[in-house]
Amino acid sequence: MSVYYNWGDVLGEVDAYALAFLGAACAIGLSVLGAAWGIFITGSSLLGAAVRAPRIRSKNLISVIFCEAVAIYGVIISIILHTKIEKPDPPYANPTALQVTQQWAGYSIFWSGICCGIGNLACGVCVGICGSGCALADAQKGELFVKILVIEIFASALGIFAIIVAIIMSTNARFML
């Protein structure tokens, strides 16, 4: 049994491939959770407002589609991160340098997955809240739909920013020397 004196020793023992796969799983998992949460928020308000004004049912489905796009963002990033994970062929010329390179790549992919997942979780909730407001405002006054839809488009840009940051973070991640 090993004795660890600082967090660097503990984090140095974590397998790089486990971190990389955990990052890819967090990218897709948190993105789908954000999309589901946004669909729940938007859908419940849409159904409630459609009782008062049935004309808004089909028009406000765009809010649900924006929430579903958040899940697709997570799937795309997860696929990109999975393509970066590769096992080098033995024999290794410099095993210590290879281990450092793999640790760096594992942490890079892990944190890019976390960044994408948390960003898309926030995006899903934000789009859901905007979609809820859009449905309720459209039920009250029909001319407010386009104005609030513009705000919802800006809210969905948060997920695109999370994708861009995740791609930039994982660009130099390589498991081979």
UniProtKB/TrEMBL annotation:
Alphabetical keyword list: Hydrogen ion transport, Ion transport, Membrane, Transmembrane, Transmembrane helix, Transport
Membrane topology according to the record: Multi-pass membrane protein
Residues of the V-ATPase proteolipid subunit C-like domain: 22-81, 110-169
GO molecular function: proton-transporting ATPase activity, rotational mechanism
Domain of life: Eukaryota
This protein's GO CC annotations: proton-transporting V-type ATPase, V0 domain
Transmembrane segments: 16-40, 61-81, 109-137, 144-169
Cell compartment(s), UniProt: Membrane
Protein family membership: Belongs to the V-ATPase proteolipid subunit family.
PANTHER family in alphabetical order: V-TYPE PROTON ATPASE PROTEOLIPID SUBUNIT
Name this protein carries in UniProt: V-ATPase proteolipid subunit C-like domain-containing protein
Organism: Calcidiscus leptoporus
